[in-house]
Amino acid sequence: MDLRLSRVYLLLIISVFFSGCVATTGHGDSLQTFEKVLKNSTCNYAFVQDRIEDKDDVILWASQGGSQARNCFDYNRSNLYFDKAEELYKSDVDLQSNANRVGSSASSILINNNVNDYEGNVYEKVMLNTYKGLNFMALGDFVNARIEFNRALDRQRRAKDYFSSEIKKAQQKSSRDKNYNKAQNRHTQKAIYDRYQDIFSEFRAYPDFVNPYTTYLSGLFFFLDGDYKKARDLLKESVSMQPQNEQIRADFELFDSYKREKNYAWIIYENGQSMAKRETRINIPLFIFTNKVYYAGIALPKLYERAGSYEYIQVGKQKSVVVADMDSVIKAEFEKRFSQIALEATLNLIVKTYTQYELNKSGLLGGIVGMLYQSLTNRADIRSWTALPKNFQSLRVELNGNPVIIKDSRANVISTFHVEKNINVLIYIKSSSLGDIKVHKIIKEKR
């Protein structure tokens, strides 16, 4: 056997071997297993803990674990998980060296992005601090809650510049690849984007990397914390993003001229499951690069919509209103990232196609090895924080001494609250699916 081809065989074997099973299987099984854990409402954390201890995508599984613990009303444990994820964001993602980024890029092109550590999304970082703030509120620790909401708001302010810089660096790195021009082949690009027209069609657009929920909820927090000016400013910002939203506008008008003549309960409702990713495969016409290969195709992540739960919740004749659509937040960031995702996948395809072409020339065995290598490692990265909701809704009711009876959209009673006089409160409800309802501890304003 030719020495050069022997080295190619060895390189392929070593690359796949040291990349582990995820190089050929992806992360779909582990994500599905976690979905079952959440669906069963179990408070056994062994699944996420094992992955964290094995240093397997710690950012992802610490975030998922934080959600699981929050569902179990274990707010301290939830924040411990979220802290672990945030520490790695600061040390391993935000401050990652150029050398590490080059290594990750090389792994993506030679194998696929599944072999690299999960680095999360901008919206996930913002939601992490938002949930930490909610956990501290539930624990009655408004000092630390204030810190977390300020961090979440600061992340949103810095997100646009940070993300633009990261994309620019990635694009510059890709443009230096010798196959860059081939990756821009119009036939390839058309084949890819034709599959994504439904994803990038019209949807509710928010400002770059702003999650309206974080802004709105922060406004409610500062109101309950007694900082009425900051609460008003945040609700004013919320109104500017969604001027037609009746709930947000009504809350802004209340904050704009608030007098302690009346007291209110805000009921926040997390509805359903957010968009997630699944793999889609796009077969590329073989004549694009060469007519002597067995197989050429790209595996890409594609967002898909998951089910909502109860359409709304209600108290008397009042129904909750959507104040933030998490699906739109996720879709907006995915759209901004997609050109780079598609480019890296195309460069990956070119390298593997050329490798297969060279192996074909060595004979039948070489062709088979090349085909297996390309098909087995043709996997999309579908990782994301899947425990987030489809949308966030809000409902405000005046407290008049009577019990607050909360019902679902089918008029079934979810919970009944007796609230003491002369106090404003926040009631938090989450329902990922019909029949699965979690009512969190009532949060009272700071006195």
Overview of this structure, please?
This protein is an alpha+beta fold. It has one domain (117-127, 138-444). The chain is 53% helix and 15% strand. It has 16 helices and 12 strands. It has helices at 3-19, 22-25, 28-39, 46-53, 58-71, 75-93, 98-110, 122-138, 142-175, 180-183, 186-194, 212-224, 228-241, 246-256, 326-360, 364-376; strands spanning 263-271, 276-283, 297-304, 313-315, 318-319, 321-325, 391-399, 404-408, 413-417, 425-433, 436-439, 443-444. Strands 1, 6, 7, 10, 11 and 12 form a 6-stranded mixed beta sheet that branches. The protein has a 4-stranded antiparallel beta sheet with strand order 5-4-8-9, with no helix packed on it. The radius of gyration is 25 Å and the shape is elongated.
